[in-house]
Every structure is written in structure tokens, then in C-alpha cells.
User: Which sequence fits this backbone?
């Protein structure tokens, strides 16, 4: 019934649907983007099946962001209980904010986002159906375009993540992957930072391969 209703909407309001669909054509740029890392903490990911992939892909995005002078913000959900940001991500250039709110958009983070004046938010983190979902909805409500890197998002249960990603896509978030975002940011192999970022690409591919091999041995 849902798909039938959607088809009726497309038939009744073709121009409105086409206009809304244009959000999927938007590409993040170096000048318009900011990277948000949601609650990727030392104790928070213990029960997540793909936490190492989340860390690896988030690290990859962080390294490329630093190389391209894209700001990076990380949050920590009640760090007294869940630990600090994973050391791979807790770099000197990473702006880290503590919180108890599930969404990343605390007053401090919201203020920093306004100061940075970036329209495209590249988002990774945990858990997909709680903090990531609420962060994405808040960002969309504020008018940001959210590029949700699904390979760098996880939940304890796969169904929770799957439903959350489906809902966020319907709500206007752009579902993508970490490598896809990086190549969109670069846009051209002639970009002066292309060679530098390609080393990060190679390292990321090697990391993911090792993670998958280690999981297969369990």
C-alpha cells in the first residue's frame, strides 16, 4: 500500500516530486562540507558487530578532511560511562564535545556549526537508530544536507540500522559511503590533494580487508 500511495503522489504532483528529488543530485564540496563523528567511543562500541569498520571508515574520512581543510567535530555520549573518543579519531584538530543529549546538536555544537557556515554535513557514528538518527533529523530540520556514510554507521542489531537508514533516506538524507564522498570532494584527479588522499584510500582498503579477514576467522 505504501508503494502504491507513493506512485499516486508522483502522478498527482510530478513537479513537486521532481523538485524534492533534486536533493539527491547535490554533491558535497570542500568549501561547503563539515565532518561529524557521532559518539565513536572506547566503551560504546563493545557490542557493535561492525565497530572496527566504523572506526576505520571514520578515520579515513577524518584524514582526508584534515588534508582538505574540512572541519571535523566529534561528540562523546556521557564519557564517564562510555569512555572517550577512540584514540584513532581523537586528534588535535578534532573538535570534541561531551553530551548527554542523544542528538549531536547540543547548544555548543549548533553554535560551532553556525560559525563554520557549512551546508553539507558528512556524518558517521553510532548507534544508527538512536544518536545518528536523531542527529540527522535535527540537521535536516535546520536545513543542512546530510551525507550519511552507511559504511561508517552501526547499531547492535542490523534490523535497527536498516530501518533507521530507510527512514532517514525518506526524510531527505543522502545515503552514501566514505570513499564515494571523498572522490566527490576531490572531483578531479588533477586536484592538488589527490595524491595525498590516495594514500589514505589505499590504507583504508587494506584496513577493511584485514577487518573482514579477522571477522571470518571468528
Assistant:
Amino acid at each position: 500500500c505504501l508503494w502504491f500511495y507513493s506512485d499516486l503522489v508522483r502522478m498527482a504532483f510530478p513537479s513537486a516530486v521532481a523538485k524534492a528529488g533534486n536533493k539527491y543530485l547535490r554533491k558535497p564540496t570542500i568549501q561547503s562540507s563539515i565532518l561529524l563523528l557521532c559518539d565513536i567511543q572506547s566503551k560504546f562500541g563493545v557490542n557493535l558487530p561492525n565497530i572496527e569498520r566504523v572506526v576505520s571508515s571514520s578515520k579515513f574520512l577524518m584524514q582526508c578532511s584534515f588534508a582538505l581543510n574540512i572541519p571535523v567535530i566529534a561528540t562523546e555520549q556521557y564519557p564517564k560511562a562510555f569512555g572517550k573518543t577512540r584514540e584513532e579519531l581523537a586528534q588535535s584538530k578534532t573538535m570534541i564535545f561531551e553530551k548527554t543529549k542523544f542528538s549531536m546538536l547540543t547548544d555548543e555544537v549548533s553554535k560551532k556549526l553556525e560559525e563554520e557556515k557549512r551546508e553539507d554535513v558528512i556524518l558517521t557514528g553510532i548507534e544508527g537508530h538512536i544518536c545518528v538518527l536523531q542527529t540527522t533529523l535535527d540537521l535536516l530540520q535546520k536545513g543542512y544536507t546530510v551525507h550519511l556514510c552507511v559504511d561508517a554507521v552501526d547499531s547492535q542489531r542490523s534490523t535497527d540500522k536498516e530501518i533507521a537508514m530507510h527512514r532517514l533516506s525518506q526524510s531527505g538524507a543522502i545515503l552514501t559511503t566514505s570513499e564515494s564522498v571523498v572522490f566527490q570532494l576531490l572531483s578531479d584527479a588533477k586536484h592538488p590533494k589527490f595524491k595525498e588522499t590516495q594514500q589514505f584510500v589505499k590504507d583504508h582498503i587494506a584496513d577493511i580487508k584485514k577487518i573482514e579477514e579477522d571477522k571470518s576467522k571468528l
Remarks:
- The first helix runs from residue 2 to 12.
- The mean pLDDT is 91.
- Strands lie at 33-38, 72-77, 95-99, 120-126, 145-154, 174-176.
- The CA atoms of residues 17 and 153 lie 28 Å apart.
